[in-house]
Fold this sequence. Notes:
Helices cover 37% and strands 13% of the residues. It is of the alpha/beta class.
Amino acid sequence: MTFKQLDIIEPILKALEAKGYTQPTPIQEQSIPILLDRKDLLGCAQTGTGKTAAFAIPILQLLYQNRQRNAGQRKIKALIITPTRELAIQIADSFTDYGKYTGLKNTVIFGGVKQGDQTSALNRGIDILVATPGRLLDLISQGYVSLKNIEYFVLDEADHMLDMGFIHDIKKVIAKLPSPRQSLFFSATMPADIVALSQKILGYPEKVTIKPEQATAEKVEQSAYYVTKSAKIKLLIHILQTQDFESVLVFSRTKHGADRIVKMLSKAKIKAEAIHGNKSQTARQRALGNFKDGDTNVLVATDIAARGIDVSGLSLVVNYDLPAVAETYVHRIGRTGRAKASGIAISFCDLDERVYFKAIQNLIGQIIPIIRDHPFINEVADKETKPQTRPPRGQQKNRPAGQNSRNSSPNRKPSNQGNRAESPRRPSDTGNKADNFNKKTSNQGNRTDSPNRRPSTDGNKAAIPNRRRASNGENAKNPNRGNRY
């Protein structure tokens, strides 16, 4: 199958050939015909499979074919929303490359920078807008962006859009979109909440799924190291100093952790930079540019910030912290197995992360080999064999009959749970229970036995007026006070 066989128009074919693209990837081969037929689409594919081209090419073609109808001042006809600035820039660059010979214009808007250049591009007129949710709503409120002419709407990386808390912003944008329109959902993973959201927006979409576990298992050489949390940074330094990798992408679970890794690598004379949400847009773009140009060999990133990192020939992916969601692991290591390329991925696994490691192996259907030949394996053994101060909960049930853990302490007073008749503090309760019942009920008739109790008017408890039960809004103490409810 070639792009020409997918009925791609000549201006786009020319741009694809200039990029060296001749054969579509599976997600492109399945999605492009559906979108050219103007149907809604729900697409699921791992990163690096050509997801962006799968929706960019048909949108460009449909806009180009309708350019006569859209003659006059340019109006925004296509809107693509994505969660991160890096991914937004990458998508806009793809539209520019694929639409080089179509005459169509696009721009990208995102937060973290001044809006002047972005609003200037909008005022000049565009056909395609790529945006992050926050800046989009901001410029809509200022009157720079109108969505009333949108014909094509794309929600990319929908799963992470929800993870980052953009669900309310997305609903606000969708409420402003005209109907009818063609809507597309693309995501690396497809959890239940994404499917539920797509059903409300897409209606009855066509579905295309490229299973990530199959693609990953075949292309990426995977291995794992058992290592304590405190020894992870030492192991990372050891690997980077003893093995030759041109470009290394390290995944940290937190922003603070990413900064700490960079700091420790710098102390070891290893040049590294971090990219995460707390960095300014300028700093993030500089770090990503240095990594792509080879000026920096190690880039430390969080999962969210890594969306949009597109580096060809990535040598190694390191899972410094294992993700709690197994599908995220697949997305991470896909960075080093782009499309048909192969790659290497290693994972550091602390004792507390082994439950995540097991879930990952179950997802991909593989046993990831453990590398035990490293300088810090003894620290793992010491941690595993260290005696526990408290037995596991399941083992507390295996006591000899009649033994209680509370009585095992020599300083604890003897328990009275055995035979209460032996206790000198209180009489036995094993006698006739009816006698005890009679003792309890003998004084219930007259409540004045207690010297501290206020006597009743006639010895009957029921004679005491119940102010709470005053009816018709009356109050026993103050008849002029109404019912508060």
